[in-house]
């Protein structure tokens, strides 16, 4: 079982699903857009069983309709994670989206016009509701914001948190990745898991072998707290099949049971219903 925990999709119908570029200045959704139907074809060909569609802030902002609709139509294979505007009654909106089948909420705190800190008072209702409902909270931050994350993990010990891209750590210098000390210090917080994405693995390749990074993360956090995600098609410098192979190869030095955990079984624990 392989589960891709970090996928973005972009609709071909721009009238039904208009783009709403927000925050981070990226243009991947125009350079290499992939519809949900095309993605399903590619994930099947690559041997990926299920996937989590993550709302792309840069493409759609707070308009989650394409992610929600896609996961609803293909609920046997896909789950959805949304971004809620913290300035617009976020608790009510998240409850309503959960009733539509949404499987998680993304706290995107990088160049977000309504959320700059994870501990923002307007974000607290999302932490509370997600924890109450057992929804995974997918956190997108930069490494300098890790102290905020630690504080929230301690404030909400029952929350289930997945950290996107491991908070973009500084991997320069290669293993043992001394410049990423703040990331590894999070290993003491049992309610956080790490998304080991293609973006991160490609960074690790630049200083050596991606296996070195996965081995180091597994040693610190345990393989049961790592999740693989392609970041496709925001990461599109290679084919989807090649991104899947990158994930497999990066886990190849782990014991077989740990490989299965990172590549899919851990995701089933976070997203046990709907698409996963």
List keywords for this structure.
12 helices, TIM Barrel, globular, 39% helix, alpha/beta, 3-stranded parallel β-sheet, 276 residues
Describe this structure in a few short sentences:
The protein is an alpha/beta fold and 276 residues long.
Descriptive overview:
The protein has a single domain (3-270), classed as TIM Barrel (Alpha-Beta Barrel). The longest helix has 15 residues, at 256-270. By secondary structure, the chain is an alpha/beta fold. Helices cover 39% and strands 13% of the residues. Helix 5 (90-99) runs parallel beside helix 6. The chain has 12 helices and 8 strands. The strands form 2 sheets. It has a 5-stranded parallel beta sheet. Strands 1-2-3 form a 3-stranded parallel beta sheet. The chain has helices at residues 28-31, 36-45, 57-60, 65-73, 90-99, 124-133, 146-155, 181-185, 198-206, 210-221, 240-250, 256-270, and strands spanning 3-7, 50-54, 78-81, 105-108, 137-140, 161-163, 192-197, 226-229. The termini are close together. Helix 7 (146-155) links the parallel strand 5 (137-140) and strand 6 (161-163).
What is the CATH H-level superfamily? Metal-dependent hydrolases
CATH topology: TIM Barrel
- The tally of structural domains comes to 1
**Rg for CA atoms:** 17 Å
The succession of helices and strands, N to C, reads: EHHEHHEHEHEHEHEHHEHH
Can you tell me the overall shape? Answer: globular
Lateral strand order in the biggest sheet: 4-5-6-7-8
Strand content is 5-15%
* Main pleated sheet: 5 strands, parallel
Q: Low-confidence stretches at least 5 residues in length (pLDDT < 50)? A: none
Task: Return the CATH architecture.
Answer: Alpha-Beta Barrel
Number of E strands? 8
Structural classification:
alpha/beta
Specify the CATH class. Alpha Beta
Rounded average pLDDT: 95
State the separation between the terminal residues, measured CA to CA. Answer: 10 Å
